[in-house]
Amino acid sequence: MFPSNFKRIIENYLNAYNQMDVERMMENFDQTIEFEHQVDGRIVLKLTGFREFKEHAELAKSIFFKRRQTPSNWQFEGTTVKVQIHFEGILAQDLRDDLKSGDAMIMHGESEFVFFQNKIIQIIDRTNS
């Protein structure tokens, strides 16, 4: 598969994520999809399998009124693609004492996508606190 195909698949995923369309987000996922979210190098969330990811993605939609991931600085290494991500979201509910409904949430990080036979089999999101 060519890097342009990987990029197209990731862009489709991010566009669906930004529109909170879980079905479209998962169109190019393998059934064995693994997802990991790391903060400061520590794993804070790990999901395994299509169903577990979908359930979490549906739940996560309720956290934000709107959200947007903007990609930049694409790096292609075989079947792995690393993308710098700028995230902005407006909270729809209180998360902690310092994060209330209506607050803006802004983060910068990196997402790593791993492919096998035209499907995403792993996503690792990395951010710093």
- Beta-strand segment tally: 6
Calculate the terminal CA-CA distance, rounded to whole Å.
35 Å
Uncertain segments are: none
SSE-based structural type: alpha+beta
The coarse overall form would be globular
Order of helices and strands: HHEEHEEEE
Give the strand line-up of the largest sheet: 2-1-6-5-4-3
Instruction: Give the quaternary arrangement of the chains.
Output: single chain
Mean pLDDT across all amino acids? 95
Radius of gyration: 14 Å
Number of helices: 3
Helix content: 10-25%
Could you give a short account of the major beta sheet?
Answer: 6 strands, mixed
Our estimate of the beta-strand percent is over 45%
Short description:
By secondary structure, this protein is an alpha+beta fold. The protein is built from three helices and six strands; from the N terminus they run H-H-E-E-H-E-E-E-E.
Question: Would you mind describing this structure in some detail?
Answer:
The protein has 129 residues and is of the alpha+beta class. The chain contains 3 helices and 6 strands. The chain has a 6-stranded mixed β-sheet, covered by helices on one side. The radius of gyration is 14 Å and the shape is globular. The termini are far apart. This is SnoaL-like domain-containing protein. InterPro entries: NTF2-like_dom_sf (IPR032710).
